[in-house]
Amino acid sequence: MGNCQAAEAAEVIIQHPGGKVERLYWPTPAADVMKTNPGHYVALVILRLSPDDKALTGPEAAAAGAGAAKITRVKLLKPKDTLHLGQVYRLITAQEVTKALKARKNDKMRRCEAIKQQHEQLRRGDGAEQGGACEKKVSDSPSSS
User: What is the top-level taxon of the source organism (predicted)?
Assistant: First the structure.
């Protein structure tokens, strides 16, 4: 009659910060979940395997410890987005979101500063030809020739 695997895929799973798991059996707007959990954002959890572990399946993956090779990506949802059946979502506190955004901004600034330093080194050391090529890569707007 019914298929157990199909029943599991026909639900929305929401993981709360304390470890509680909530299951919904219909598509729901993210705004509704955020209203019932003030101070939290809804994020889609995306699990990916590393390229080496994609070749391993079944018992071989378990024996090789493939659980540690999963890469998790978390994508924040807008309130108007819909939580779809068969997906796993996680509630994230506003403090965690702010902390992650600050870390991302600092990382971007560090990378930008490193590129500027490399550009200055090339400009001073190796000559104008290499510096000009680097300048074209670094600049945001394409130059017209």
Answer: Eukaryota
Alpha carbons within 13 angstroms on the beta-carbon side of residue 47 total 11
CB neighbours of 72 closer than 8 A, spacing ≥ 6?
A: 45, 46, 47, 48
Q: Where are the beta strands (DSSP E) in 1-145?
A: 12-15, 21-24, 28-29, 40-49, 70-76, 82-83, 88-93
Domains of the chain by residue range: 4-138
Indicate whether this model's pTM tops 0.85: no
Q: How many angstroms separate the CA atoms of 23 and 107, rounded?
A: 36
Alpha carbon 79 to chain centroid distance?
A: 18
Which backbone phi and psi does 116 adopt, to 5 degrees? Answer: -65, -40
pLDDT tens for each residue of 86-117: 888 999 998 888 888 898 899 999 999 999 99
